[in-house]
Amino acid sequence: MAKVRVEFHDIALAFGKTQVLRDIDLVIEPGEFFALLGPSGSGKSTLLRVIAGFAFPQSGRVLVDGRDIARVPPWERNIGMVFQNYALWPHMTVWQNVAFGLEERKLPRAEIERRTADALDLVGLRELAARRPSQISGGQQQRIALARTIAIEPRCCCWMSRCPISMRNCASTCARNCSRCNASSASPRSSSPTTRRKPSPSPIASRCSIRA
């Protein structure tokens, strides 16, 4: 899978009379770990939803490797999303949660097993595979949500977080996991986390954009 370039050109989006995004021009380079920083309500999560296809801009273009996907439905984009609330299935085990997207794609069983194991190894939680989300910590749940996204080998990974990877001491670990994923020859991708905090993102991001 080739690394991809993500571009926003003149993106505008409003909810009723509230203008959330206006004249957004941004480029995320192939394989880059790019952070969106800013206060609540500044449009960070909305911009990630635009990449993933959960929100459609009223104007502008979203290019992935030169193709405009602004009107393409999310299931045709192969863009991964790690939601702020993690969106884990409570009745499934950790292993089943990570394998869910692969099973929905009806991949061969051997491929599902391999990708699920590799993703859990990448976030260092394979030993918790038999537990349910309620039996692991919040930080571990976040890493499982990341593993589920990694497993589908998305072209771009969008990641929502209230602060850099929930806690500062967890940031470096998860950032290293994403960096390893970006550098992997099997499934390189661009990563775009969003956070409300404003300290230097240098430990976890190669570049950032600050939303006011």
Which features does this protein show?
single chain; Rossmann fold; 5-stranded parallel β-sheet; alpha/beta; 212 residues; 5 helices
Summarize the structure.
The protein is of the alpha/beta class and about 210 residues long. The protein contains five helices and nine strands.
Describe this structure in words.
With 212 residues, the protein is α/β, with parallel strands linked by helices. It has a single domain (6-210), classed as P-loop containing nucleotide triphosphate hydrolases (Rossmann fold, 3-Layer(aba) Sandwich), CATH 3.40.50. Helix content is 30%, strand content 25%. The strands form two sheets. It has a five-stranded parallel β-sheet with strand order 6-7-8-3-9, with helices on both faces. The chain has a four-stranded antiparallel β-sheet with strand order 2-1-4-5, with helices on one face. Helix 2 packs parallel to helix 4 (138-151) and helix 3 (109-122) packs across helix 4. 39% of the residues are buried. Mean pLDDT is 83; it is low at 164-171, 183-189 and 197-202.
Strand content: 15-25%
Low-confidence stretches: 164-171, 183-189, 197-202
Shape: globular
Number of domains: 1
Strand and helix order: EEEHEEEHHHEHEE
According to CATH, what is the topology? Rossmann fold
Strand arrangement, largest sheet?
6-7-8-3-9
What CATH architecture would you give? Answer: 3-Layer(aba) Sandwich
Q: How would a textbook summarize the main sheet? A: 5 strands, parallel
Topology record:
Layout: E1 6-15, E2 18-28, E3 34-37, H1 44-52, E4 59-64, E5 67-68, E6 79-82, H2 94-104, H3 109-122, H4 138-151, E7 156-160, H5 168-183, E8 190-195, E9 207-210
Parallel strand pairs: 3-8, 3-9, 6-7, 7-8
Antiparallel strand pairs: 1-2, 1-4, 4-5
Helix pairs in contact: 2-3, 2-4, 3-4
